[in-house]
Specification:
8 helices; single chain
Length: about 350
């Protein structure tokens, strides 16, 4: 199979809409609705998206030695070991029973990363924010704003209604999958299967600068303790926090190993920068492993770790190196909205954020 050479990064590859700033203002307004509703409900501010965590895992990333030039970029330019924190979550902005089944997220923070940093990215960390599907649900910020308005309207404490709706949508989703159709819309509204998050593969969904090139990222479970959980559904019918409790039980004895992989952009028509609803096919550019992540057995929901990571840290695609600058419209509008959400949470909870150091 002939693979084209990777596309070199250039600033003019991005197409900035003239009204993108107005869309950002609209997104911030909708995030404020979610944040204000949830903080009033809980007496405590939570994240405006991915509010509910299912596990906090500490581990180590090892960057592979002697990678070829096109892969030896940024954080991955040379071999090395770094402490990491992983936060497993569900994508809603309110804390819902696990019976409301939504896509999973995994945020990965790499500590001790040296190099020129993005504007406003304090400390020496590199964040990767991923979900368990290869595409985003909206092609551009305006569509994202429309979806967020719907989410904001349903952010309340009507868990019973959401649970019933999720059950119906899960049935619809299974019917679609049975005939070979995958619907990110159905899954985003509550039709995602309640799969064990430790067995899932996670994708950056949006593209990033990769030093001289452009890439998407993927985190794939590889150890038998994790791959045995791939596709395993968790019974959430009785316990509201069944997923968290299951992950906590499994991580007491499981050795977690993942491959951190890179998919380079090689064709801007087939692999667009601005539309994250288009999946970059592996036939055009395969994912390649550039690092491994290992986590030893541990308590994934200890009080100290939850306080340190879930409460005192923020995760953002805009925290990291200039060599891994987020690209595309969805990433651009994430910058101010993520920061605004984090600052609201820090102010309401009277708990400033702490970037860890190596």
């Amino acid at each position: 199979m002939n693979i084209a050479p990777p596309i070199r990064y250039a600033p003019d590859l991005e197409e900035i809409a003239p009204d993108e700033g107005e869309t950002v203002k609209g997104l911030v307004e909708q995030f404020d609705i979610i944040l204000e509703k949830t903080s009033q409900d809980y007496g405590h501010a939570v994240r405006s998206v991915h509010a509910k965590a299912h596990g906090i895992i500490k581990g180590k990333m090892t960057v592979l030695e002697n990678l070829p030039e096109e892969l030896a970029q940024g954080l991955f330019s040379k071999g090395g070991e770094y402490p990491v924190y992983m936060r497993l979550s569900t994508n809603a902005g309110d804390i819902l029973p696990d019976a409301v089944s939504l896509p999973r997220g995994l945020a990965l923070k790499v500590v001790g990363v040296q190099g020129d940093r993005l504007s406003g990215a304090d400390g020496d960390t590199q964040d990767f924010v991923m979900v368990n599907g290869p595409v985003f649900q909206a092609p551009n910020p305006k569509k994202f704003l429309s979806s967020l308005k719907l989410l904001a309207k349903t952010t309340d404490r009507m868990e019973g209604t959401k649970t019933v709706l999720s059950s119906v949508l899960q049935t619809v989703n299974k019917g679609l999958e049975a005939v070979g159709v995958s619907s990110t819309t159905v899954q985003a509204l509550g039709g995602a299967p309640n799969l064990d998050p430790l067995g899932e593969t996670y994708f950056s969904v949006t593209p990033f600068r990769y030093g001289c090139y452009i890439a998407k990222f993927r985190l794939v479970p590889t150890s038998p303790d994790l791959t045995s959980l791939t596709g395993k559904e968790i019974d959430v019918s009785v316990r509201e926090d069944a997923i968290r409790e299951t992950v906590q039980s499994e991580m007491q004895t499981a050795r977690g190993e993942w491959d951190f992989q890179v998919q380079l952009c090689r064709d801007l028509d087939r692999q667009p920068v601005e539309d994250p609803t288009v999946e970059w096919k592996e036939d055009d550019s395969p994912f390649v492993t550039v690092a491994t992540v290992v986590a030893q057995p541990q308590d994934s929901w200890s009080d100290d770790t939850v306080q340190q990571v879930n409460e005192e840290m923020r995760f953002s695609v805009w925290t990291g190196l200039s060599d891994h600058q987020p690209l595309g419209s969805i990433n651009r509008v994430r910058k101010e909205t993520y920061r605004h959400s984090a600052e609201y949470r820090a102010t309401f909870n009277r708990c400033p954020f702490h970037e860890p150091t190596s």
